[in-house]
Design brief:
Layout: H1 3-10, H2 13-19, E1 35-38, E2 50-53, E3 62-65, E4 71-72, H3 74-82, H4 86-96, H5 104-147, E5 150-151, H6 155-163, H7 168-175, E6 182-190, E7 204-213, E8 221-228, E9 231-232, E10 250-253, E11 263-265, E12 271-275, H8 278-288, E13 294-297, H9 301-304, E14 322-326, H10 341-358, E15 362-368, H11 378-384, E16 398-400
Parallel strand pairs: 12-13, 12-14, 14-15
Antiparallel strand pairs: 1-2, 2-3, 3-4, 5-6, 6-7, 7-8, 8-9, 8-10, 11-13, 15-16
């Protein structure tokens, strides 16, 4: 407890006022309610306008003079009576009531800590405002990027999707039109996270598939996949040690708000097929629900499966009655004695499936090749064999749980 709080809790304002000349008016005061009236000891008057209320339940005693307007705690009373600052008023009250008070060095330390805390709170509020403005600027940047895209199967995008087993003609036939939340940009720059964009050139620049993130009412961001005629674009020598690797996918938009959002492809439908990436979601819809469904890219497994606290950021669109989760296995090797990447993938996706079943949805969990320990998605399946694979059907490309 601070010295000020200790003084206010232990010193009787009534007693201090009495010592200063207050004489309580018997007709106006109400001792049972700890309510006292007197002529004000802080200025000359003939009628009792000085009011003291004794605190209870840890609340401090308070006073107010309806004649001169003075008001406050016992500390304020001493400051006004003696014409001193708060520090001196506290010292006089503490000494007069035998309340231990910290040394001068301790007081200086506490004041310094309090000053630092106030400054930190101010800086935190300013940073919060700056962060909000920065997040909105990123969202606006995503909107402008999207406005510069071409919707529809542009030549390079058509070639890229065909290489993944997704014929644009087949997509249009399935959805009735081009899935409107994916588009093409002819030339986007790509920077590594560690780069200074103001002074350094991009490590890659070229065409990209762009996915629109967010509900129809408000666009939250975009997802960018750099592409080439034969598949994903790859870094050149400008990327140093990354030379030859696939150009990393990038998000642009409002941080925080994008987590749990998704890329919606196709018209609203009671049947939704959820995959991680754009290509895998499209392929899974065509393979697993040939009768029609809305394809949804959840962008990241972390967003569509439980986090460390068991929460799932993603939610299915309103009106969804059947949810097909197009999972992806993981063929990477793990550390001995620990949960393998394949076991982790199966556990996370299975938990997500149970969660949505508990919410009343008809849920099917599917994984290519009946294998959790193989790094494959439904775009890989579509590229190798295009068939009418259906959950529960025979000779399906994938398998769905019961």
């Amino acid at each position: 407890m601070s010295l000020a709080a200790d003084v206010k809790a232990r010193v009787s304002l009534k007693a201090v006022a009495e010592a200063s000349g207050a004489v309580w008016d018997r007709e106006k005061s109400n001792p049972d309610k700890r309510d006292w009236w007197s002529c004000c000891p802080l200025h000359a008057e003939d009628t009792p306008s000085f009011h003291v209320v004794e605190g209870a339940g840890g609340r401090p005693d308070l006073f107010k003079c309806f004649g001169c307007g003075a008001a406050g705690s016992v500390v304020d009373f001493i400051m006004m009576r003696d014409g001193v600052r708060a520090v001196e008023a506290l010292a006089r009250l503490a000494d007069g009531w035998n309340i231990p008070r910290p040394s001068d060095s301790e007081m200086r330390r506490r004041r310094a800590e309090n000053t630092a805390r106030i400054a930190a709170d101010h800086d935190g509020a300013r940073r919060s405002e700056d962060n909000a403005a920065w997040a909105e600027a990123r969202r606006i940047g995503a909107v402008r990027l999207w406005q510069g895209c071409t919707t529809g199967p542009a030549a390079m995008l058509a070639t890229y999707l065909a290489a993944r087993g997704l014929s644009p003609a087949r997509l249009v036939a399935y959805f009735g039109d081009w899935p409107g939340d994916i588009a093409y940009h002819p030339n986007l720059r790509h920077f590594l996270d560690r780069q200074n964009r103001k002074t350094e050139p991009p490590v890659h620049e070229g065409p990209a598939m762009v996915g629109r993130i967010g509900p129809a009412a408000e666009m939250i961001g975009v997802h960018r996949t750099w592409i080439a005629a034969d598949g994903r674009a790859r870094y050149g020598t400008a990327a140093g040690s990354l030379d030859g690797r696939k150009v990393a996918k990038k998000l642009l938009g409002k941080p925080g708000a994008m987590k749990g959002a998704s890329i919606l492809m196709g018209a609203p439908s009671p049947v939704a097929v959820l995959g991680e990436g754009i290509e895998s979601a499209l392929a899974a819809a065509l393979i697993l629900e040939p009768g029609g469904a809305r394809a949804i890219s959840g962008i990241s497994r972390d967003w569509i499966t439980p986090d460390a606290h068991g929460s799932i950021a993603w939610s299915p669109p309103a009106g969804t009655r059947r949810l097909v989760i197009a999972a992806e296995g993981d063929g990477r090797s793990g550390k001995p004695g620990r949960e393998s990447p394949a076991e982790l993938a199966q556990r996370l996706y299975s938990t997500a499936a149970r969660h949505w079943r508990d919410q009343g949805l008809d849920v099917r969990l599917c994984v290519p090749d009946r294998a959790w320990d193989v790094s494959r998605d439904y775009a890989d399946e579509a590229a190798e064999r295009w068939g009418a694979a259906v959950c529960g059907g025979h000779d399906a490309l994938g398998v769905c749980d019961a």
